[in-house]
């Protein structure tokens, strides 16, 4: 009987260890590169495997609302606040991590258009044969902003006729393949792609920063490991990585 009890205790301990060995992180696209760069440190501090699942803020929000299990979510602060109110994110765990601006990208070797001013940027869009950006309907932060910006600049109609809407992933990859002449996306999504050139950020007057924050899943079974991941992301170890990926602290 003693042996059976001891074996059961060992099995329970092993089960708990297995559960603690994996932290599932749902992350919006622009923050994925930071997580990948920090993955070894994240796993070291979490004491086990950290898996990453990437999608747009809108898509991840719907998945979480639909009941998908996860341990940590990296989304826009407003999305986290909404999910906290719905009991999906643990209260008082939302932590702002970084912000990233929007930039313009062309294929490597192609002429770099002038985007130094709002008027120059507008002319560059009108002169481009084709333009790629995230489909606003997909829920991506940059796509929603770009669609509104085109309306604000009064050129939505002209640009729409030659737009290639990207439903997810990096816009720059489509530029590298020659599927569009000019792309607009968050800078952290542009920098990792080969075969492209970052023309630069949008002019300050029309720049838009997306802030990313992380919160623990309300139903996480590995809260300590998830907190360890969040501590790394919000701590000094992430500062240089954020900068290298085109991000900065909010």
Please describe what this structure looks like.
The chain contains eleven helices and eleven strands. It is an alpha/beta fold. It folds into two domains: 2-99 and 211-248, Periplasmic binding protein-like II (D-Maltodextrin-Binding Protein, domain 2, 3-Layer(aba) Sandwich), CATH 3.40.190.10; 102-206, D-Maltodextrin-Binding Protein, domain 2 (3-Layer(aba) Sandwich). The strands form two sheets. It has a six-stranded mixed beta sheet with strand order 2-1-3-10-4-11. The chain has a five-stranded mixed beta sheet with strand order 7-6-8-5-9. Helix 2 links the parallel strand 1 and strand 2. The chain is elongated.
Domain count: 2
- Principal-axis shape equals elongated
Low-confidence stretches: 1-19
Number of strands: 11
Strand % is 15-25%
Mean pLDDT equals: 91
The H/E string reads HEHEHEHEEHEHHEHEHEEHHE
Question: Strands, helices and their partners?
Answer:
Elements: H1 2-20, E1 22-28, H2 32-46, E2 49-55, H3 57-65, E3 72-75, H4 77-85, E4 95-100, E5 102-107, H5 118-127, E6 131-134, H6 141-153, H7 156-160, E7 163-166, H8 171-176, E8 182-186, H9 187-190, E9 196-201, E10 210-216, H10 223-234, H11 239-244, E11 247-248
Parallel strand pairs: 1-2, 1-3, 6-7, 6-8
Antiparallel strand pairs: 3-10, 4-10, 4-11, 5-8, 5-9
Helix pairs in contact: 2-10
